[in-house]
Amino acid sequence: MKRAWGSRLAGRASTGWLALALALLFVPLASFAGVLADDRADALYHRYEGGGVTIHGPSVLVRKKIAEKYAISANYYMDMVTSASIDVEVSGASEYKEERDQYSVGLEYLRGKTTYNAGYTNSKENDYQAETTSFGISQDLFGDLTTISMGFSRGKDVVRRRDTTTDQIDPTFKEPIDRWSYRVGVSQILTKSIISSLQLEVITDEGFLNNPYRSYRFVNPSDDRLFALAREIYPRTRTSNAVAFNARYFLPYRAAVHGGYRFFTDTWGINANTFEAGYTHPWRQWTFDVGYRYYSQGNADFYRDLFSRANQQNFLARDKELSTFVSQALSVGATYEFLPNGWRFIKKGTVNLRYDRIEFEYDDFRDARFSLLPASDPNFRAAGTEPLYTFGANVIQAFVSVWF
C-alpha cells in the first residue's frame, strides 16, 4: 500500500496513516516470536471522508496454522475513490471516480524460538501498479523477555498517466519506481506490567516519485494577482529514516495505557514528529479504547506554495503533503466479544467499531480557490494572500473477527 503519490490529484498522502493502520490490522505478524497467532478470519469496511475526497471499501483476511509450525494468510483490500479535492478544483478538472484492488499472501514458519515470515502484495488501479515482496525474522532471547526482529521489503511500481481529455492511458508515459525498505526492532518486557519496543526503518525510493497529474503554481507574468500552473518536477531518489519508541502499561484492573513517539527525516529536507497516547478499558464482554495522535512536519526543500516564476529552480513542488503542517486525531473504539464459549468450530468472535476525527492545519499551503474568483467578488484574494488551507476528516472502521 506504500505509494509515491495518490491517484489523479487525490492527495491520498493525507490518508497514509489510515493505510498504515489497516495494514497493521490485517497483516498477521506476531508481536513476539515463539508462538504463532491463532487461526482467524476478518471482514472489514473502512471509510475516509474529508477535503473533498471519499475513500471506502471492504477488506477480507483469512489466516490458518498448519501443524503448529506454519501459518498462511491471504488478504483482499479495495479502495473506491471519489475525489473533488482542492487540487482537482484548482486544476480545473471535474470530480472523478476510480478503484484500487490489492491482494496479499503471507507465510510464517516457527522453528524453536525463531519465526521466519515472507509476504507478497500486488496492488493495481487504472494508472498505477505496485508489487511488494517482504521477508522477516524474529528471535526470542533471555527467557522470552526480549524479542529482536529484522525485515526487508522490495517494491517495484509502475506509474502510468491518463489523458484527462480522452480518459485513456497515455502510451508514451510509463515510469518505474524501485523501493527498498530495511527494518530492525527490539521488544522488551520490562516488568509484569510494562512492555516497550524500539524500531528503526530505512526506506530508499528511486524513480518517478511525483504525481504525474499534479502542478505547481507561479505568479502569472501578465497579472501578478493571478497564478499559472506547470507540471511538478521532483528528484528521482529519496531516502527516509524513522525511529519509533512505544510502551504499554497494564493497570491492576485489566485496563492499559499506551504511548509512543516517532521521528522521521528524509533527504528531501522533511522532518516530522508523531506523538500518540491512548487508554484501553475492558468491561464484561466489551473493550473500549480512546486515543490521541499529534503529527507535525516541516516542508521539503523544493516545496513552495507560490513560485515567483516558471522553472524557478531545478525541482518544484506544491503537494500539500510536502508542506509544513500539523494534524491532530482523536479516536474512539469499542469491541464486543460474542460466542465467548465458542460454537461448533468457532472459538470466539468480536464485533469492532472505530471512529477517528482528524484536523489538518497547513502553515504554508494556501487555498488557491480564492484567487480563482472574479476580481469583482468580495471574497477574491490575490495569489499568495489567500487564507491558509485547513480541513477535517472522518474515518470509520467496522469489522468482524472470528477465531476458529
Could you walk me through the main structural features you see in this protein, from its secondary elements to its overall organization?
The protein has 404 residues and is mainly beta. The relative contact order is 0.13. The protein contains 2 helices and 18 strands. The chain has a single domain (106-403), classed as Porin, CATH 2.40.160. Residues 1-33 have low confidence and may be disordered. It has helices at residues 16-26, 86-91; strands spanning 40-50, 53-66, 70-83, 96-111, 114-125, 128-141, 146-162, 169-189, 194-207, 215-219, 227-231, 237-250, 256-266, 271-283, 286-297, 325-338, 348-366, 388-403. A hairpin with a 2-residue loop joins strand 14 (271-283) and strand 15 (286-297).
Concise overview:
The chain is mainly β and 404 residues long. It has helices at 16-26, 86-91, and strands at 40-50, 53-66, 70-83, 96-111, 114-125, 128-141, 146-162, 169-189, 194-207, 215-219, 227-231, 237-250, 256-266, 271-283, 286-297, 325-338, 348-366, 388-403.
